[in-house]
Amino acid sequence: MTGFSRSPRLAKAGLVLIDPESGAIVRMISLQYNSEKLTRSLQVQSSGEESDRSQALRLKGPAVETFTLEAVLDATDQLEFPDGNAAAVEAGLFPQIAAMETLVYPTSAQLRKQDALANAGTLEIAPIETPLTLFIWSRHRIVPVRITQLSITEEAFDPNLNPILANVSLSLRALSVDDLGFAHRGGGLFMAYLTAKEQLAQRAPAASLATFGVGSLP
């Protein structure tokens, strides 16, 4: 028995697509290796003009939160042990890359349906709705998102030009109740995400005025 037999299982980050009506899982995409860095940005949604004193402390909605991360895809291990890894031997990383890319495409069936409606003379055709995407980075961070940018750099190839090493850059924008509404399943998931933030904030170490070298406020 080795010293690693009781090592904790590494949780994976990734994306889960669900049906916005039923909540059924449509697809799950886990990152092969967790990103070493996650960049987050929060844009404050203040209310009114800066010169309007009555609105100085008001927020008109949740902050607009964005995530940026980079993931590595590597088929080297699968190619080293080809038995049981037929997909990697035949197509390298194409299946994993395609799974990421199809997140930002309507399906071919949806496009054909739109074309049929247009040819039938339908006056107004609603934009195609996609499954709801959830970004999961630990049990503390499960948030509905929209993918705003996907960039893939393929860095190595097998003799058949199948990519075997790639870097994926992913930008996500959190979807709040401002985007989805409270009745939408994604709106409920956002509220759970915000509630989790508030609960974690209550566990942060407390400070006192003495921490800032101040005895009392003026």
Explain this structure to me?
The chain is of the alpha+beta class and 218 residues long. It has one domain (14-197). It is 24% helix and 28% strand. The chain has six helices and seven strands; from the N terminus they run E-E-E-E-H-H-H-H-E-E-E-H-H. The protein has a seven-stranded antiparallel sheet.
> What is the count of distinct domains?
1
* Topology as a string of helices (H) and strands (E): EEEEHHHHEEEHH
Q: Note the beta-strand portion.
A: 25-35%
Number of strands: 7
- The 3D shape can be described as globular
Average pLDDT: 89
Structural class call reads alpha+beta
Gyration radius, in Å: 23 Å
Spatial order of the strands forming the largest sheet: 2-1-5-6-7-4-3
- Helix segment tally: 6
- Share of helical residues: 10-25%
Poorly predicted residue ranges: none
The span between the termini is: 65 Å
Main sheet, how many strands, which sense, barrel? 7 strands, antiparallel
In short:
The chain is of the alpha+beta class and 218 residues long. The protein is 24% helix and 28% strand.
Any descriptors?
seven-stranded antiparallel beta sheet, alpha+beta, 218 residues, globular, 6 helices
Write the layout of secondary structure elements.
Blueprint: E1 14-18, E2 25-30, E3 38-43, E4 64-74, H1 76-80, H2 86-91, H3 94-101, H4 108-119, E5 132-136, E6 142-157, E7 163-174, H5 177-180, H6 185-202
Antiparallel strand pairs: 1-2, 1-5, 3-4, 4-7, 5-6, 6-7
